[in-house]
Write a structure and sequence with these properties.
The protein is an all-alpha fold. It is globular, with a radius of gyration of 20 Å. 42% of the residues are buried.
Length: 320
């Protein structure tokens, strides 16, 4: 699906900019151009589509599914919903905003925000084919547990005051008769909402992609295999830290996971790396910075990071 974008990135990198192919600079620049185009297309399309869908959903319907009365059930349902919505971490943000603005508890929205990029059916099928049902089952179970428990913990911390005020100012009120809108009204609403969100986050996205592109181009391919090999106690936290600046979805990381395991990196470490890339990506943090305060981002990253590291150590113990 993204092949035309890759052709365009190659043309701009090697023809227009004249960068010599197969160099570190070429790799970084090509990655930056490709991911910038891809992410902004995804953001525009997904925010627009989600906005259209939101125009059909009354807040009462959302609250009935993810209500405050059954908040733990809400965390479970939000995590399961995340699995069947195969969005990358950045494109899950509009849905996060929609949940908060519809009155869904903050902890429940975080469960969705974590599960959506971390777990998807494509990665599940690839893991099943490459490593068997045991690894695939561990992957989906651990992702669900991390998403559910992280959301519950964040919900108990009562950190609603750390969300930027404009998020709540745009809250949907139950008195609005959304179904009476015409299709033209829905399209105009979706376009205006999409434009407004992109204005708020474009610079943060570019900064995050730029840092990820530098690491992609200049970090040696065997870095993790060399310093995070099997038996090293610091392998799991190092894999998590290295994975944060990189940007990809779970399916895109699978080939790298396969290569790392072949080079001697333990499975728990590689799964921790994959989860870090998908659930704790730097571009995601850059976007989140516009909707929540730094303290809440650190709480979110800390809780999820600890969960991922625990999972990595547990899998290394189970699978050794």
């Amino acid at each position: 699906m993204f092949y035309p974008i890759q052709l365009l990135a190659d043309f701009l990198t090697y023809t227009i900019l004249g960068i010599v192919p197969k160099t570190l600079l070429a790799s970084a620049v090509n990655f930056f151009i490709f991911d910038t185009i891809k992410i902004f297309i995804l953001l525009f399309v997904i925010i627009f589509v989600v906005s259209i869908i939101r125009s059909y959903l009354l807040p009462e319907k959302i609250r009935a599914i993810l209500s405050r009365k059954n908040k733990y059930v809400g965390n479970v349902l939000a995590s399961l919903l995340g699995i069947i919505t195969p969005f990358c971490s950045c494109s899950a943000i509009p849905l996060f905003l929609g949940f908060v603005q519809a009155g869904v508890p903050l902890g429940t929205t975080f469960s969705f925000l974590i599960a959506s990029p971390m777990i998807n059916e494509v990665a599940l099928v690839l893991l099943l084919g490459l490593f068997g049902w045991k690894i695939a089952l561990i992957y989906i179970t651990s992702g669900l547990v991390i998403a559910i428990l992280s959301g519950i913990i964040i919900g108990k911390l009562k950190v609603e005051n750390l969300v930027e005020s404009f998020v709540y100012e745009n809250s949907i009120n139950g008195n609005i008769d959304l179904p009476s809108m015409t299709m033209k009204d829905r399209v105009n609403y979706a376009f205006d909402y999409t434009k407004d969100i992109l204005k708020k986050v474009w610079l943060y996205v570019l900064i995050g992609i730029g840092i990820g592109a530098w690491i992609h181009g200049y970090l040696p391919a065997d870095f993790l295999a060399q310093y995070a090999g099997s038996g090293k106690w610091y392998a799991v936290p190092l894999a998590v830290l290295v994975g944060i600046p990189l940007y990809s979805n779970a399916a895109g990381v699978i080939p790298l996971v396969s290569a790392l395991t072949e080079k001697g990196v333990s499975m728990g470490t590689t799964l921790a790396f994959m989860m870090s890339v998908t659930a704790l990506s730097l571009p995601e943090f850059m976007i989140l910075k516009k909707v929540m305060k730094t303290k809440l981002i650190l709480i979110f990253a800390g809780i999820v990071g600890v969960g991922i590291m625990f999972t990595g150590y547990l899998f290394n113990f189970i699978l050794k």
